[in-house]
Amino acid sequence: MLKKRIVASLTVKNGMVVQSIGFNKYLPIGRVDISVEFLNKWGIDEIVLLDIDATNQNRNPNFNMVTEASKKSFVPLTVGGGIKNLEDIRKLIHFGADKISINKVALTSPKIIKEASEVFGNQCIVVSIDVRKNKNRYEVYSDNGKNPTGLNPVKWAKEAEKLGAGEILLNSIDRDGLKLGYDLSIIKRVANSVSIPVICAGGAGHPKHFLKVFMKTKAMAAAAGNFFHFTEHSPIVVKSYLLKNGADARLDTYADYKGINFIEESGRISKRQDNYLDRIRFEYILDEII
Amino acid sequence: MKNKILIIDYGVGNDQSVINVIDFLGYDFLVSNKKEDILKSSAYILPGVGAFNEAMKNLNSLGITELLKKQVLSNKKPIFGICLGFQVLADYSEENGFHEGLGFIKGGVVKLEAKRGLRVPHVGWNTLKIIKKDPLFSNIDKEPSFYFDHSYHLRCDNSYISAECFYGRDIAVAVQKDNIFGVQFHPEKSQNNGLKLFRSFFNYLNVKHA
Q: Per CATH, which fold does B5-209 belong to?
């Protein structure tokens, strides 16, 4: 069985991982390679690195950063930001990216999707779509949510698929950083209209949000940034919550929180009974030697 | 004799990801596409992300296709193909037209069918059904998860298959024929299971040279 993916989406600004709120407020988190190392240890399924000022500042992707991050990542690494042409893509893959994510360049010259998928295979090309809801209408925005494009997200996703995109990364600008849950309505519509996998992003703040999006839509992966930064062991907690509630996720780590209870309002795990904690107090677990 | 492991750099590989793993496990290796390095090395890793015809075009224009065939088929040097590097081991592929492969494994690469709601590419972590435990899967638990990312898959004789996974139907995702190994998934991106698989491959090389 193909499992649902839990993806960490790291927003990078000035070479630092930042917390992003509504695509316009940013708070520093820390170094890229350290974030990647932690997430990797916590059993994340995939990491997306989005360098949000590369395109704005009209500079190249930060190839060194990609290599440093890839050294710490034994899970797939998708890299986006500042990609202008096939040469950038070739270099990113060479420097350690497994997939690349394009947003602005796909909007301004859609034929890059076709060309890139012919050279690198469509499985390698992720088209990232930023969506904002105005009244009841959804619209694709470019330049980190600044400029409306007039495009309908469903139509644009279908067009990207036709051109050769391998996956769609659907970001909700309105939900970004709010921790209110994913925007199910647009995710449902996009995932129903394409036959490539859809990764949704924007709004996760509780393990139940992941469960909901997997139960109610055909999204194959759900991404979060802030939630993973600020909640300890969060990828494992999310996965055990999913497994407990009947969704399929990969759980390969020693800590699996099987049989644990969750605190409903925060989604965190509840404290074990004192006698259980006493019993495991001196338990020593060796690192697995590979 | 010490093993000389060569990562074949043919322009479509995610070399860095494979380098990271081998570095982590602590082996010496070389990254190259030169004929003399192919001659000198005792085992090959063929990574790959990309399209089949690009991969074969690059191998051919580097002029190393025939040399590689000789080293693997006559001199029996082990080769380990990953993802696209696994697909090029086959006779042919139907990706973007018909293209000839290296022909180490009898069979062809065909498109995954997007039917009954299956999404193509097949992206994500899927569970393996292991058919031949040795040597690649000797250290791995039953039904391990590995990371996949592909739109095409290999169709070959059952006797080569060492692992399958289910995606609409059973597909061959790992093969072995004597000194020839290949996996459709990405062990370099499959966390501990992937590291264990690489370790098993290197252990096999050491036994072979002991």
A: Rossmann fold (3.40.50)
